[in-house]
Fold this sequence. Notes:
By secondary structure, the protein is α+β, with helices and mostly antiparallel strands. Helix content is about 35%, strand content about 15%. The protein contains 23 helices and 20 strands.
Amino acid sequence: MPRTKSVTESAKKRASKARFQRFRSKFINLGDETDRWNNLKSILGTDEDCVVAKTLIECYLETHAGPTIESLTVKHSVGTESSTPMHGHSHQVPPDPGLSSLSEGSDTPGELSGIGGGISDFEVAGPSGISFKRKSTTAPDKPTKVKIVEKATERKEVSKRTARVEVDWPSSGMEDIYDPDYDPDDPTYHPTDFDLSIVQSDDEAVDEAGVVDAVFDIDCDDDFEDDSQVIGSEKPLDEVTEEDMIEDNYIVSRHCLNQLLDMLPFKHCSKCGKTATHRTKTVGCTIIVIWTCEDGHVLHRWQSSAVLPNGMFINNFQASASILLSGNNYEKVRLFVKFLGLKFPSQTSFHRVQNKYAVPVVNQYWSDLRASVAEEHRAVSIVVSGDGRMDSPGYCAKYCTYTVMNQEDKKIFALEVVDKRETDLKSGLMEAKGFAKAMATLQADGIELKEIVTDAHPQISAIMRKSYPKTRHSYDMWHGAKNLGKKLSSIALAKGNEALKPWLKDITNHFFHSAETCGGNALEMKTKWLSVINHVTNRHTWALGQCDHEPIVEDERDLEEKQWLKPASMAVKDLQKTVMEPRLLKTFPYYVTCQTTSELEMFNNHLLMYAPKRNAFGYAGYKCRCQLAAIDYTHHVDRQTLVDKDGKTRVRRVHSKAANNWTVVPVKEKKQYKYIPGLLSRICMEYIQINKENPLRSKFRVDPDDPKKIASTIAQCPPPPTAELRETKRSRIKVKQASKKFAD
């Protein structure tokens, strides 16, 4: 019967948090017996902690004639903080299906039933000389799943090892709101069977991050392997080079892998001679193969990836970092690999790798690259352009990326990201804030500016007049012509002004011509600009001047395309008002150098590859993506143009939707992305070097300059309870219920 009880997301989170707290309270102190434990493993001829644990428990039960494992299952007893796991209490802990790593991902779960069972008589002698004898026994009908992971703690210079015991049992009919996989609307949900797990952790931040984060094979994050369990494989890497990052990787189908595994010579155990079988486990995009015999002896272990310290496989780490470095988002990549049937790291691991290791490395890489660019231009006065780019369309932007670029070689000098929370939640102030931060960065780098080109932003103009009066401030010609074209288009749509429409493009081009040929003189530009009124009326010479073009031959003109305007017509009067508008004429001193920010606009378009406007990002992730776009652009800005066999520049056709015409653009060399292997290796080394002080599973530390220090979100009021929102929600669209006959 499907369960009808509904549990809210907040209740699930509270219950899950309470469960993690109970996990932390259930540790067993092993004292100083770690060496004897490892010695016992070597005597038994096994590297599996589960075999030793199962053997000791069964020996204890047989020796003392105490309760059986089955009785523990019925009583639902759970070990407390004690040196022996047999003391318990009646508190029922809900089942956790993610604690067993021995059966997860196996081809045939039944293969595990022989582990720890069927061991013949033997005698065990510990370092202290204590010995005991165990009678032969057979494997139970149902395999007992046990896992042991150690956690080292130091208190008063005394080294201790602790372990936690968890017992899970079938909960038939019990509604488990603590299970993260529990869905009250899923009629097929069934909790896992009995699971005895003795869990240890090497994570020093276990109290901070939660015990669930200290176990590598929890369902919520399945791309970790405890490096203490790596058997017969290479040791964790202590250094990662660029050569490791350019190594080829391949996709292998499971049935093809099984064919290869069946051909390998691991058929019988070299210690007992019994038949050996293999089992597999997937950890992210890494597969692990373990060959064991019926007595639990481990013959060999193989994994498809090298391992980093603390059990992180390098393939999983590289996959998570590559999503960020390539400008992709996890959701799309995850959907792609799902359709492909490819195993992949979890979303939690991706965000941890991004925020803890990739973001700091990319930030430092960009700082070093920007410093080298600044060093090259420190001895000369330069002309730069600046422009801001919002992170979303419309008037609901959260971030503004302000970029400053050299006009000559197109190198980026500064890139600043402004959050809405830094401007009192006013989006209109973000661009001016970004400009001020960028100018401060240029001053700190010792860059001497001769001229800066921006759009006609009034707040930026005010900053330049007050703070940088000695630096020439110019407006972007393209933005000026665009705004002028809009005004001309509006008057051309008026009744009686239809004859003006064919002249719009020529008038806009004349605006560029006036700025380009004025020689830096605003009065000269004004004179040339006003001459357009005479030109459109077929007057090319007047008392104070003449047009710059050659004499016009009327027979060569296409009269059907453009006709001369009548001087007394309404179209000429409206054109004169627009051309001689005082506000426009006052801006001419900002246009006399005829500068544009077209290359900077191309970079803003390039930002869409790394930070699309239709996706939401956190501050650290968004800033990192903008820096990656700048790194990509800087490394490839000097690409050469390709030529054909005749030595001519190769071009390709493109269609302009705005102008509704065809044109050609030069073809450049393909991007090589030669910096990516070095960047990946630096991110891996960052993980290796700071893993102990900043483990992957520890809490994320917010930087001091993160806008979260100002406010946690951009919401201006705290969120009300979900239940209240559900009750007060109303919709203007009424959903009509289908009739029962139609539903059938």
